[in-house]
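Methods: holo model generation. Sequences were used as deposited, without trimming of termini or removal of tags, and paired with ligand SMILES retrieved from the corresponding compound records. Each pair was processed once, and we did not select among multiple samples. The sequence and zinc ion SMILES for this entry were:
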Amino acid sequence: MGDDAATPTDHTVLLNGQIYQSPPDSSLSPVLASCMVIKDGNISHIGSEQDEFVASAKQSEATVKNLHGQTVLPGFIDGHLHLLLVGQALTKVALDHCKSLDDIKSEIKSYAAANPDVSRIFCKGWTHSMTPEGVNARLLDDIDPRPIFVDTKDLHSTWCNSRGLEEICHVMELGADSPDPPGGTIQRDADGKPNGVFNEGAVFQTIWPFVARVASMEEKKEAIRSAFNAFNAAGYTGMIDMAMDETIWEPLIELRNETNGQLQGMRVAAYWLMKPDDSLDNVLAQVDRAAELAREYNAETTPDCRLVGVKVICDGIIDACTASLTEPYSNGENPDPLWPEHVLHPLVAKAHAAGLQVALHAIGDKTIRMAIDVLEKNTDKSRRPRIEHLELASARDARRLGRLGITASIQPVHSDPAILRAWPRLIGDGRCKRAFAYREFADGGAPLALGSDAPTAPHQPLPNLYVATTRRSCREPELPAVVNPEFALTVCQAVAGATHGSAYSCFADGWTGSLKVGLKADFVVCDVVLTPGEIVKGVVKETWFEGKRVFEA
Ligand SMILES: [Zn+2]
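and the model returned the structure below.
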């Protein structure tokens, strides 16, 4: 009989734990078991140490691990993230502690000196308050001849040196007279030429595709590997990529092929990102491509790495006044959704006919209503369609989600009061009362999938659950603001959304997402108190994937 799970084994008894069992009604408290047996990667028993099953497992040479009262939760599944960007963000030079332009420059300079072989220098963590005079490309030009790219902490702006700007313009075919993309700005100098700063939509539509394109295959594989490691360390065993395309799929599959035809310690489900196009044929051809990949990579062939559906970004965000609202913003702006409804109907119908799931990004109430209408007409419950973000839904639409079996894919970290300071000014206090109506979605019977939208927000699951259940700030814990407390989820609703709900949303609930006999032994061991106020202090100690420990603190 082994003493501890120091070596991988296919038969383990976990004793003296608090093993989380979803209550039948998630407004109730969790049910906790003390003992779990795992064999050949699956959960074979949950109960108490006195059970006959446990005694015979112990006799048959199973490794016994004493949990010393720690909590065991199902492995977290991030319901919405951007895999390659997460990985790339992890390897960037951190500027968070800088206070001035000089600090930033000297930090980049020492990185450049220590890393003579990297072809480009990527940085993160810049805030505008470090550079109150404003910035442009020239300010970075005397540091290093290589292209330099600097992201703001919130990822809503990117600043580059002249060499970097040249490369962006070349690769993305941008000229001095290229217009700003929808919902974004390319900052200009006095002559109207781009000056090296990209904001909002220009980051997502120009910088991110640029970075994905110029990174080498090796760099991308390395980024994906670091994302998997970081997510295992945070307690994740699964993730749903919400903007998959060829530039990410290719390295992901190559990485998988190199590691015995199996991703290591992580399951990925992906939605293929639809790119806007004036030609309906070109739009529908993208659905064909997704369907082709889904026929090759699905639950039967590659359960750890699947292409499950298509994703359409139907509007922008409130802060940039690009989310489409039924009433104008306070400044008079009143943008339409980014995709017209008459294109979404054939797109969704075709995806449904091809067996694909559909995920629609909809933040403003006008877009949300349109998204629900389109899903209602062209797909159905059996396909588990979903809507991403749902930040400003009307009460009527909140109720429709459950009735239509539409998963509410929510990112509680986006409802952190520290990042909503502009909302009252942009949409007025009245509409702010409808913000992030998570509890209404749940009460209306909508399946919930919780995600982080990393790297646009931090990916740690326990802080995400804290914001979901307290509606308070995790970024600035001292902040007294509570965002519409009546919409808070219970701890069990939030835990379910971040585990079983995310699995359910992509048809993975048959093998992961809960701690039940017969499912994969995907779980986290943590020191945590499962109450709204305390959950944030929890610490993930170990992460297990298919019965093997893949992370230990
Ligand atoms: Zn996203």
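The CA atoms of residues 232 and 378 lie 37 Å apart.
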